[in-house]
Each structure stands twice: as C-alpha cells, then as structure tokens.
C-alpha cells in the first residue's frame, strides 16, 4: 500500500508543504516539491489553489496581495492534523488559513509573546509538553508526556491541530510515529516518514522509542479522523 507525500529541501531557508496521501494501511512514500496531494481530502489543496493567481501569487479574501508562508518542515499528517517546526510571525497568516483550534508545542521554553497573542486573537488553545531537546547519546524521551500529547491529538474536538517542536524533526517525529502505530502502519513506513523529516539528523534512539511504544492503552479510543479508518 502507498503513501505519497511531497519532499522538502533539507536547508533551513527552504519551507515546503508536504501532505500525506493514504491509500491503504501499510504505506510507502515518495514526494515532490511544494505540492499538496491527498486522496482522502483535497480541501487544503483547493483552499490554497483558489488563492493562487497565474503568477503563483496567493491572495487572501478581502485583502491585498498576500503570500502565505508555512512554517519550516510543515506537512499535513492526516485529516485535521498538521506538523511543523516552530512557527514565527511570518507564518501566522498561513496558520490562520488552516482554522486551527489547538497547537501542541513539545518544547519546554516559555511560548513567545507574539505567538501567544496570535493564539489569543484566533481562539487557538495551546497544549505545551516540555520535552527537552537533548542530543544523542543523552536522549531521554518521556513516555508519559508523549502519551498525554497523543491523547490531545486523538481528540477530534481539538482539530484542526498543529504539532510542533523546534525543527519539526525529533520530538514531533516521535509523537507522529506513535500515532502511526495506532493507525496500524508497518514500522518500515513509520521509520521512512520519520527519516524524511529528520534527514541527516535521524536518531536511532527516536526510532527505538517508537518501536517499543506500547499502544495497548489507546486501543479503546476511536480514530474517527484517520484516513485508514475511512
């Protein structure tokens, strides 16, 4: 079974949009630059295309010409679930277009004041789980925090939801990887997705954590938002 997603450049200055296309339960992945494709729900693609003119410029209703800039490592994970690196002021218009209800931040530092103002003005709830960004071999991924964050992701009342850490690679990759286990993805596909976001920074310890993560306590929860359940 296949998962097709757009690839991203691994440079810090390149922001791309990557969207998963889920056809069946065990996925393979391939991708291309700055495109949005999903078999289950093309609403995000249609939304952005409707604001793009012949010159590739994006317009916002009722405004002058406006360019939407997604956060670094941004992608659609599933219906109503997105992931990215830490968003900044330049990304606010793009995030506003997603109609977010909540944001999950996996960083321990205080949330920036500008970001808090953006959340307040748009009625977005912040869930912060302070996971330290250690480097190998001193990586310590707190199982309890990942579980609590996963509960927020699984609750459709929080959708649309954006998951982010600093670079959208390790902590975000672990949380998304654990969600994929609940969606019955095979490990090779889970690791492939993780590695494409982490690139040269991929960690064996993160992948080991995902592999050993026990999902038995979540099996009573419905995955009503999941493409794999449709």
UniProtKB/TrEMBL annotation:
EC number in record: 3.6.1.52
The protein's enzyme class: hydrolase
Pfam families from the UniProt entry: Y_phosphatase2
PROSITE patterns in the record: TYR_PHOSPHATASE_1, TYR_PHOSPHATASE_DUAL
Catalytic activity: 6-diphospho-1D-myo-inositol pentakisphosphate + H2O = 1D-myo-inositol hexakisphosphate + phosphate + H(+); 3,5-bis(diphospho)-1D-myo-inositol 1,2,4,6-tetrakisphosphate + H2O = 3-diphospho-1D-myo-inositol 1,2,4,5,6-pentakisphosphate + phosphate + 2 H(+); 1,5-bis(diphospho)-1D-myo-inositol 2,3,4,6-tetrakisphosphate + H2O = 1-diphospho-1D-myo-inositol 2,3,4,5,6-pentakisphosphate + phosphate + 2 H(+); 5-diphospho-1D-myo-inositol 1,2,3,4,6-pentakisphosphate + H2O = 1D-myo-inositol hexakisphosphate + phosphate + H(+)
Native source species: Opuntia streptacantha
Protein name stated in the entry: diphosphoinositol-polyphosphate diphosphatase
Family: Belongs to the protein-tyrosine phosphatase family. Atypical dual-specificity phosphatase Siw14-like subfamily.
């Amino acid at each position: 079974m296949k998962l097709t997603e757009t690839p991203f450049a691994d440079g810090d200055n390149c922001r791309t949009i990557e969207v998963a296309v889920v056809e069946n339960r065990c996925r393979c992945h391939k991708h291309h630059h700055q495109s949005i494709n999903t078999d289950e729900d093309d609403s995000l693609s249609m939304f952005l295309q409707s604001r793009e003119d012949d010159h590739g410029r994006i317009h916002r209703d009722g405004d002058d010409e406006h360019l939407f800039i997604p956060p670094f490592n941004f992608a659609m994970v599933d219906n109503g679930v997105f992931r990215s690196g830490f968003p900044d002021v330049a990304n606010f218009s793009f995030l506003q277009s997603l109609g977010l209800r909540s944001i999950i931040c996996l960083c321990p530092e205080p949330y920036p004041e500008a970001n808090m103002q953006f959340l307040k003005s748009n009625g977005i709830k912040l869930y912060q789980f302070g996971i330290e960004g250690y480097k190998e071999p001193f990586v310590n991924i707190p199982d309890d925090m990942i579980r609590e964050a996963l509960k927020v992701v699984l609750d459709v009342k929080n959708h649309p939801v954006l998951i982010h850490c600093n670079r959208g690679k390790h902590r975000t990759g672990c949380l998304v990887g654990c969600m994929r286990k609940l969606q019955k993805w095979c490990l090779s596909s889970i690791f492939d997705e993780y590695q494409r976001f982490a690139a040269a920074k991929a960690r064996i310890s993160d992948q080991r954590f995902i592999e050993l993560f026990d999902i038995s306590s979540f099996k009573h929860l419905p995955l009503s938002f999941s493409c794999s359940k449709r």
